[in-house]
# Entry
Amino acid sequence: MKPPPRKIVHVDMDAFYASVEQRDRPELRGKPVIVGGQPDSRGVVCTASYEARQFGVRSAMPTAQAYRLCPHGVFLRPDFPRYKEASRTIQAIFREVTELVEPLSLDEAYLDVSQNHLDEPSATRVAAHLRARIREQTALTASAGVAPNKFLAKVASDLDKPDGLTVIPPERVPELLAGLPVRKLPGIGRVGAERCARHGIERVADFLRHDLEQLVRWFGSSGPRYLELARGVDERPVRPGRERKSVSIEDTFAEDVVARAEAAAILDTLAERLAERLRLAEARGRTVVLKVKYADFQQVTRSRTLSAPTRAHTTLSETALALLDQTEVGGRPVRLLGIGVSNLDEPSASASAQLVLFDPDPP
Ligand SMILES: [Mg+2]
# Structure
């Protein structure tokens, strides 16, 4: 017998940092507020208020560019203690409803409300309840998406921002995915989207025009996953209190690294140091993570989960090099490189490592 469909809610606060600022400083309401680095620095935008977005300002954009688009904007440095306080309140509201909460950041979480403390069978009403409680307790607005899995719930929460609630019923899934840019798929960033575009895949539904073999040729082990997502299937469970234990090592350079060969050599040295660190800790890791911070401070990570835990220098180095191909290193100056492993298999954690080996959640 097939299990009943899950009820997943994705809650995402609207322009969170900027909204906290506008809430606490009424003189900023209705104004374009840009939280992040100062315009004369190399920083990037963390959050732009909806007023600032009308000028084309977006998060992760260099602040200098935001300044050109919106010179009359109010540029603020982030005040994390205040954002964290609001975040704690929001997380507590989530846990009134279910323990199955997976936070993604200070202002975003997945909730599995298939069973919930409200004994409310309608996930839509649970989401409405959450939004009302958040507004009441924090004077901030949240958007929510309701769907049978995490991928679709996150797509849904984005459809009617700000202050929206979107439900994706099964019959709407094909139509919705047809028009969705591939960028919206979990695991596909800008580079991934460019790679898809080279094969004529711009929209999620474009994956459906190819068979699995072809997709594997183009995208390796990600091929089957993309095809599943394009069909609206996503079995990843909501994972509360996800373990984030990892060992990593990184280097910031005095001068930006431009050449890919130089980056590769640095990574090999980092892999060697990481291997030594793991050996001393008697630990092995199954997921290799590459971290790249570009000269403009934009940071990306790429990861790959191996079939077995490792601490071998060569494996770490080769995996990191393969991941390097999924970044813009070589085409864009880099100020920091890092390599790490997670999904640790340590002497003290062998029981949990066993569970990790059969973890159905793809990286
Ligand atoms: Mg948000």
The mean pLDDT is 89. The chain has three domains: 1-168, 173-230, 246-357. The CA atoms of residues 10 and 110 lie 5 Å apart.
